[in-house]
Every structure is written in C-alpha cells, then in structure tokens.
Design brief:
Elements lengths: L22 E5 L7 H5 L11 E3 L5 E7 L2 E10 L2 E7 L3 H6 L1 H4 L14 H9 L11 H10 L5 H15 L1 E2 L8 E2 L3 H5 L3 H6 L4 H13 L1 H4 L6 H8 L7 H11 L13 H10 L6 H8 L6 H11 L20
Antiparallel strand pairs: 1-5, 2-3, 3-4, 4-5, 6-7
Helix pairs in contact: 4-15, 5-9, 5-12, 11-12, 13-14
Keywords: DNA damage, DNA repair
Protein name: 3-methyladenine DNA glycosylase/8-oxoguanine DNA glycosylase
GO biological process, one term: base-excision repair, AP site formation
C-alpha cells in the first residue's frame, strides 16, 4: 500500500508545537470500561474548549484543580490505559484518575427492572459513573444551563473560557482551563451579556466563586449532604445540584428533576407515553431507588426520545444596547 506524502505547510505556517513530556500513570480498570461514554457527561458541547476527543479515541481534559491548572490525556485500551498530565495540577489529576474513570463506582448494586434498561445494561457493560472531585468545575456550567437551550449554554461556556480562561498546560490545541475565582470575578458585565448569560445566572456564578474552596470541599461529603449545602446558595436548586453531583460525586441516585425534556424521554422509553412530568418520572424510576441516575443514563443511551411536533426554540443572539 502506498503511503501518501505529508501535505506541505503553507508558506509562513509554523507546525503546531508538541507538548513536552508530562507526568505518566498507567492504570488497569478492575472491570469493563468504556472511557468515552464514562467521561462524555463532562463535555459541554462538541466545541468545549476544556474537553476534546481525537479521531483515534484519545481523550483530553483541562481542569482547574485545587493544585492549579492541569491537562490530562488518556489513551490506550481499556485493559491498560496510559494517562499523561501537565501543569501544576498534573499530579492531582493522576491521583484522581481511578475515581474519574469510575473506579469508585459500584455497578453491581444495580438491577435492571425494565426491558429497555436491561438491554442497555447488557449492551454497555463498560459504562461507569465518573467522579471528578471538583464541585465548582461541575457547578458553573450547570448554572449556565439553567432555563436555556443546550445550544445557548454550550455557546456561553465556550465563549467565556476562550475569553477569560487560561491556555491549558501542555496542550497543543486551543484547549482552555476555566478561570479561577478571581478570574470569574473580573468578567465584565458586557462579556456575560455577549455570551448570552442573564444577570440572574451571572450573579449565581459570582456567589458560587466567592465561596470557592468551601464549595469544592463538599466533594469530601456524601452526595446527599453536599446537595443540601449546595442548595443553600441562592440560585442553586434541585436541578443544578443534581447536575453537579452527577459529575463531582459520581452520585448514582442524583436524578435530575425540573428538566424540560427528561421526564418525557423517560416516560416514552418505559411506557410509550408522549408526555410525562417529574412525578411520573420519579414513579417510573422508583424501582431503581439509590441508582436512579444510572438507570437514567442507560435509558438515554438505549431509547429514542419522543417525537417532537412543535417548532424548536431558536436562541436569541445578544444585541448591543446604545
């Protein structure tokens, strides 16, 4: 087979720099592991500056850890994963690697009760619930997703990181680490507006970053207690707390209530009903008490969403005020 010659660089172009060698850790999961599906909830849209999946399956993740900014790269097979990390937070990321990849997750406690769930459980034995141990990193994008379309929320997260984040250590691409507390506090009101974030959500982010380390300390608490404390912050309700705990704690029972589409998806998958509400969803998930988030993940993987007959909500672009 003829190997094509590399395409020459345009005149004046500079090859993308390769990152210097970082800290290395290899890890063998205790059981089946689907790295991509396990970590995909951490990606906030296909253009997330803090998360990337290469064509060969390599996963990149940029994080703001308690030790500072860090970049993590995962590659290899599920039988022997190689993790490489850069930046002040490199060692922290490598120490947290097993939890990130579901090493603390116990799927043996889960028993499928519906045909759809049973089939998804059989087809996806490597699905694990990730635990980042980073509450603020999971909380801020969840706040941005409050009461807006996912397109609007992902756009806001991307723009804010590109404008106010810092370059990810060791990353050859345009990956960014989210700002620290001082960085978020310096975001001007106009940039929030241009990112499509209203005053209410911006104010909630500001209250959260002022608490900073106290919120990240919630990672050491049981999920239920951490959720109660999160909801004591004005602007953080059950929906935002659940979306945060699913990622920061790998909480298997943190079911999302108050979502516009999730109850309809669960109801349609398990009963065929086109319209459902939170009460119906919780009744359907009751047999999975203690594991409702895991059941939801499996249903979303296996079952189609109900057909939509109404027009899609188009996001409104920000406008300049005179």
């Amino acid at each position: 087979m003829r190997v094509p010659s590399p395409r020459p660089l345009p005149t004046g172009a500079v090859p993308a720099p390769r990152p210097e060698r970082g800290l290395i850790r290899t890890w063998t999961p205790p059981g089946p592991l689907d790295v991509r599906r396990t970590l995909l909830p951490l990606r906030r849209g296909p253009a997330d500056p803090a998360f990337r999946i290469d064509a060969d399956g390599t996963v990149w993740r940029a994080s703001r850890t308690p030790a500072g900014a860090g970049t993590l790269r995962l590659r290899g097979s599920a039988a022997a994963l190689e993790a490489e990390a850069w930046g002040p937070g490199a060692q922290w990321l490598l120490d947290a690697l097993p939890a990130l990849l579901g090493g603390d997750d116990d799927p043996s406690a889960f028993t499928p009760r519906h045909r759809v769930v049973h089939e998804a459980h059989r087809r996806h034995p490597g699905l694990r619930l990730t635990r980042t141990g980073l509450v603020l990193e999971s909380l801020i994008p969840s706040v941005l997703e409050q009461k807006v379309t996912t397109v609007e929320a992902y756009r806001a997260w991307r723009l804010l990181l590109l404008q106010h984040g810092e370059p990810a250590p060791g990353s050859a691409g345009r990956m960014r680490v989210m700002p620290d507390a001082r960085g978020w506090a310096r975001v001007p009101s106009w940039d929030w507006h241009c990112a499509g974030v209203d005053d209410k959500r911006a104010s909630t982010v500001m209250r959260a970053v002022r608490l900073g380390g106290r919120l990240d300390a919630l990672a050491s608490l049981p999920a239920q207690e951490a959720g109660t404390r999160l909801q004591s912050v004005t602007g953080i309700g059950p929906w935002t707390a659940a979306e945060t705990l699913q990622r920061s704690h790998g909480a298997p029972d943190a079911v999302t209530v108050g979502d516009l589409h999730l109850p309809h998806h669960i109801g349609y998958a398990l009963t065929g009903a086109r319209r459902s509400d939170d009460a119906t969803m919780l009744d359907l998930l009751a047999p999975y008490a203690g594991q409702r988030h895991r059941a939801t993940r499996l249903i979303l993987l296996a079952a189609p969403s109900p057909p939509r007959h109404g027009p899609r909500l188009a996001p409104n672009p920000p406008t300049r005020h005179s």
